[in-house]
């Protein structure tokens, strides 16, 4: 069974090994114009990176607002998953529910989430207001945590 699961990754690895190249100059699938643009862009990025390189660059990277925002998102996701995976079943069990009932009750928020995502995506596609859908994610997530208190 494990071999069957690994087979697509192994085949893709062999294809990538022979198909992808190390440098844009060797890429046959790029046009000359694309190849020149990519090489110039990569060269400019290398020069900029070499000029900014210092020992404190790692600390500056960790203090970057984008890295901090991604860390906050990861923390929120992990906290929510641990809540559903570890603490919710224990809380539900304290009410005297059976294992089957715990499974169904613990799956309920995920089922509601799937339904909400499908409905929200349809609404966004139908009204052509995807930007509005992006802006409502954060308040909706915050409201979800307030409902659980």
From TrEMBL:
Molecular function as annotated in GO: transmembrane transporter activity
InterPro entries membership: MFS (IPR011701), MFS_trans_sf (IPR036259)
Pfam family, one: MFS_1
GO CC, any one term: membrane
Top-level division of the source organism's lineage: Bacteria
UniProtKB keywords: Membrane, Transmembrane, Transmembrane helix, Transport
Subcellular location per the Swiss-Prot or TrEMBL entry: Membrane
Topological category with respect to the lipid bilayer: Multi-pass membrane protein
Gene3D superfamilies registered for this protein in UniProt: MFS general substrate transporter like domains
Stretches that traverse the bilayer: 6-25, 67-87, 102-121
Keyword Transport: yes
PANTHER family: PERMEASE-RELATED, TRANSPORTER, PUTATIVE (AFU_ORTHOLOGUE AFUA_6G08340)-RELATED
Full protein name: Nitrate/nitrite transporter
Species classification: Bacteria, Pseudomonadati, Pseudomonadota, Gammaproteobacteria, Enterobacterales
């Amino acid at each position: 069974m494990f071999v069957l699961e690994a087979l697509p990754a192994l085949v893709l690895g062999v294809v990538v090994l022979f198909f992808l190249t190390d440098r844009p100059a060797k890429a046959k699938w790029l046009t000359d114009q694309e190849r020149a643009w990519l090489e110039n862009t990569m060269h400019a990025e290398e020069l900029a990176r070499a000029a900014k390189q210092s020992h404190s660059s790692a600390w500056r990277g960790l203090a970057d607002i984008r890295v901090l925002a991604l860390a906050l998102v990861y923390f929120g996701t992990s906290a929510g998953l641990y809540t559903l995976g570890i603490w919710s079943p224990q809380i539900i069990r304290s009410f005297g529910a059976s294992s089957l009932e715990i499974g169904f009750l613990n799956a309920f928020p995920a089922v509601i989430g799937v339904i909400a995502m499908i409905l929200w995506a349809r609404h966004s596609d139908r009204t052509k207001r995807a930007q509005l859908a992006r802006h409502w994610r954060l308040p909706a997530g915050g409201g979800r945590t307030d409902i659980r208190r």
